[in-house]
Amino acid sequence: MKVALTLVVRDEVDIVDAHIAFHLNAGVDVVLVIDHGSSDGTSEILERYAREGHVRLFREEGRGTDQGAWMTRLAQLAATEERADWVLLSDGDEFWWPRSGSLKDVLEPIPARYGLLSAPSRSFVPLSDDGRSFLERMTVRLAMHTAVSDPAGPFRPVSKLAIRAHPGIRVRDGNHSVGGVPYARLETWHPIEILHFPLRSSAQCSAKYEKTLEGWAVNPRGDIARARRFADESRLLAYYERIAVDDEELAAGLEHGTLALDTRLRDALRGLADVDELPEEGARFPLPEGSPRLIAADVGVAEEVRYAVELAVLHEANAVRSRRRADDLGSRVASLEHALGTLAPRRPRNAERNGR
């Protein structure tokens, strides 16, 4: 079995090395990545992996972003040129964690008719920036008991897709859905979760939204629309400080079960780098020779319960989003009907002549 990972990155020097090394050690065979005009050192890291034969690197230099088209191109190359069996549609701040074993272990037994596998995203919250690597600091994630109602929040319950490779695949913006494939979706089993680190420091938060606002002329995501209102640097810093979790909120969240301590990624990368603490400037991670190095252990009952609850929350959030889209469509139809109803009816020409 061959597993490919595709992603588009831009100025993610703080995370891209750990991201690629993690997945190569967890069962990914090749990474296909578009570097969208990075200027912070990301390109040099990607070039090193490309020289070593682990990354196929492509570049886009324009200011605008066309994520769906770019990810479609990479996913089709994974199917046609790389002869991959499965493709993970990833972002640079996501770590695809198998619930047990390696990524290959959980993908291998899926029957051939199923080719769409949802991976729920579990977001880690920003804590105080004390100068250490975010991998050391960010060991607390949301443990949602109910769907977040704010569509403009940065931690909405979502899932991404692992797909059985197909040359006709079309990836839609956001990597949440695809078209052009004949496979059924496996709805009831979620053996891969995504450990998500969207906001890692005040500087990274500001740069993230500045680059996103520059690249997307239009983006329907609520948090992007909200960030557009905080477009200057000082207000983006204030936005980060507002959503960062302080010590009091952390203690309360852990006590009430809305936050959960999760050191899996930190501990796995420490083990790979053979260090007691991951340095802020990044560690060198060895790459596997043959079998994956990172093998996830089975989790305990308490974690299985949290996972089941969060899956229920995800399904609830998807239902809410579907109802919201239906309401929006209904409002548009009603507005159109009202506009048409205000137009004066026009008599047919034959009727006008007959009435003379």
Describe the protein.
The protein has helices at residues 16-26, 42-51, 67-80, 103-107, 134-137, 202-215, 222-229, 233-243, 247-256, 264-273, 301-341, 349-354; strands at 3-9, 30-36, 55-60, 86-89, 94-98, 114-123, 140-142, 159-164, 170-171, 178-179, 184-186, 192-196, 259-261. The protein contains 12 helices and 13 strands. It has 356 residues and is an alpha/beta fold. Strands 1, 2, 3, 4, 5, 6, 8, 11 and 12 form a 9-stranded mixed sheet that branches. A two-stranded antiparallel ribbon has the order 7-13. The longest helix has 41 residues, at 301-341.
- SS-based class: alpha/beta
Radius of gyration: 23 Å
The total count of strands amounts to: 13
Shape: globular
Number of helices: 12
Largest β-sheet summary? 9 strands, mixed
User: Overall mean pLDDT score?
Assistant: 85
